[in-house]
UniProtKB/TrEMBL annotation:
It comes from Roseibium suaedae. It holds the Pfam family LysR_substrate. This is Transcriptional regulator. GO terms for cellular component: cytosol. PROSITE patterns: HTH_LYSR. Keywords: DNA-binding, Transcription, Transcription regulation. GO terms for molecular function: DNA binding; DNA-binding transcription factor activity. Belongs to the LysR transcriptional regulatory family. Signal peptide: none annotated.
Length: 330
DNA sequence: TTAGCACTGTAAGCACTCTC
DNA sequence: GAGAGTGCTTACAGTGCTAA
């Protein structure tokens, strides 16, 4: 809990705070290394040798340490030294401190190299299935210390998240209203669309079904302004197809699936999503994909990050992993 | 550039143990 | 018990870093 001035208690300079007192009096890592070397060798000269320093320098370190702690740390004997109870306890603590520093060193190295850390990515639904999930699977194997957070949403929401720094990058499209120079986009894929309905839907029994045939039914679509919805609206307008009057707006793929599996509503999704819930049997045989809307022109999606922000190594690794999958799928 | 400071090494002295 | 060997402490000087 933060202290009265909002500082972490460990960082506060408290009168009588022991570690702080030691540090203020000049306790250094060299002191801690010496007490450990002394514990191991039982001789100041050998301890000095172990630390690659001279014996007088080691002697001075020990004296300083005793002045700092205010207790006798080693019993001088005719041949060598033995640690007192205080010395043994300090050595035990020194071992923990140095081990923690080793751990910190390893952790920072991992962060620098991208072997560990956290990455937050965003994706439109189709890209999440096609690119993010495989990348996560591979990362679990090759970089088990990396935590991945995924936000699946529409491109406009993801762009705002990117601008706010809530995600490192996303797969989607930069809304036309924004300055594209602010973003660095790498083309990934086209996103053909499919209409999906429940398996027993009347449309599944028709041959040569078209988008026009879908109009009388309830629709479940992404919210106003979402890329996919804008593309569908523009396509229908251009083809002279009347726009459906009964539309449920949601960006939730779960709610969308529940509605279409229990009613005669239809929805338009990216083909990977349709494939996932139909070909793979994930829809439990309750979802069917209609081969319509495949020619709806929709802007291809890209891997997008802020042009002004350099990715952390762990995020850069994940970014490159997704790019490498794109080249495999080409 | 320079003064001050911290750190380190060398040399000398002291204490203790071992061996004869 | 005395001399030799080992180990620790102290004084002093050199070196490198930092701040003015």
């Amino acid at each position: 809990m933060p202290g009265p001035k909002g500082l972490d208690p460990l960082l506060q300079s408290a009168e009588g705070g022991t570690s702080d007192r030691f540090l203020k009096k000049g306790l250094r890592l060299g002191h801690l290394r010496l007490i450990l070397a002394l514990e191991r060798t039982g001789h100041l000269s050998r301890a000095a040798e172990l630390l690659a320093t001279s014996q007088p320098a080691a002697s001075r370190l020990l004296t300083e340490m005793e002045q700092i702690t205010g207790v006798k740390l080693a019993e001088r004997q005719g041949r060598g030294m033995t640690l007192t109870l205080y010395g043994e306890r300090l050595a035990a603590r020194a071992r923990l401190v140095l081990r923690e520093l080793d751990e910190a060193d390893r952790e920072l190295e991992n962060l620098k190299s991208g072997l560990a850390g956290s990455v937050s990515v965003g994706a439109v639904t189709g890209a999440a299935v096609e690119y993010v999930l495989p990348a996560i699977r591979q990362t679990r194997v090759t970089h088990p210390l990396v935590n991945v957070s995924v936000e699946v949403n529409t491109s406009d929401v993801l762009t705002a998240a990117l601008d706010d720094g809530r995600i490192d990058f996303f797969i989607g499209r930069v809304p036309a209203a924004l300055d594209p120079r602010s973003y660095e986009a790498r083309f990934l894929d086209h996103e053909p669309l499919r209409v999906i309905v429940r398996a027993e839907h009347p449309l599944t029994r028709l041959s040569g079904v078209t988008l026009q045939d879908c109009v009388p039914y309830d629709w479940v679509l992404q919210p106003d302004g979402a890329m996919l919805r804008v593309a569908v609206e523009a396509y229908m307008r251009n083809k002279g197809i009347p726009y459906p009057t009964k539309v449920l707006n949601t960006s939730s793929i779960l709610l969308t699936l529940m509605v279409i599996s229990q009613t005669n509503a239809i929805t338009v999704v990216a083909r990977p999503v349709a494939d996932f819930f139909t070909l793979g049997g994930e829809g439990g045989g309750r979802i069917a994909s209609l081969d319509i809307a495949g020619d709806v022109p929709i802007q291809p999606y890209s891997l997008i990050k802020l042009a002004s922000r350099k990715l952390a190594p762990v995020a850069q690794n994940f970014h490159d992993l997704i790019l490498s999958r794109a080249s495999v799928l080409e």
